[in-house]
Amino acid sequence: MSDDGGKAVAARITPYELILEPLESSVFPAIRAEAEHRGKDARRRDQFLLLGTVAAALGEMMADDAPSDAVDEYGELLYQGYQFWSFGRRLYFFDTAVTDGLTAPEYAMDGWILAAPPACYLQFPYQRIWARVGADQPFEPVDGCFVVVDDTAPAPQAGAHLRAQLVLGVRTDRPGVSLMSYRTDLDPYSVSRLARAPWREEGEPFANAIPGGERKGYRTLATTSELEALVLRAFHYLDNHTRALISHPGSSKESEPRLPWIEVRAV
Question: Cα separation of 223 and 184, whole Å?
């Protein structure tokens, strides 16, 4: 466990555990069985959402009067959670020093070819990165990001399909979370230029936008370009600093995460 400003830090309980882990015992296996029986590819979101077991699970997760955008976001959450479970529940926790490097205005990664796990959850230090789901909404702390990278069925003019879902405002005393999703098709050989210096209309990428946040070292995500860059930079770091990855076993204690997790340290 690394030291962060004199304090021991560890991965927190994840939104997967708070919302989706109960589905592991019956729903997720049933989704897999139905996909196999019907010859559907559950990695493809369009085919995943057409499964009857998926529709039933969403009906249980959501209120009957949920708005259409909430239906789409929770459909994405269920899809991301299933992929996370299906591919081994890979949880990476980035320490503060690494996170600060990943959210620098520029990040050198020339010549890197995209390499990423098929599904994972990237978790960042508490209240280090902030974002909001709309321009008229308050900023909330980013817990982390579910990510799926699929290169099994290349998209037109690209070699990988990336889906990311940012999770905001995670608290054990809160019944839900805020979600923000992003998808894109990527050429694995051209990702370096996308993540080197992401776009922001005003100010430097990842610059704080919360009054007084500079004193606390806050970073903010204001554009999808920044979210895309954060994910790609994180994968670049994982790929190039394998010695900085420290595996931790899961825990059954309520005060600690139950999932096994990988600590990502600065080098």
Answer: 14
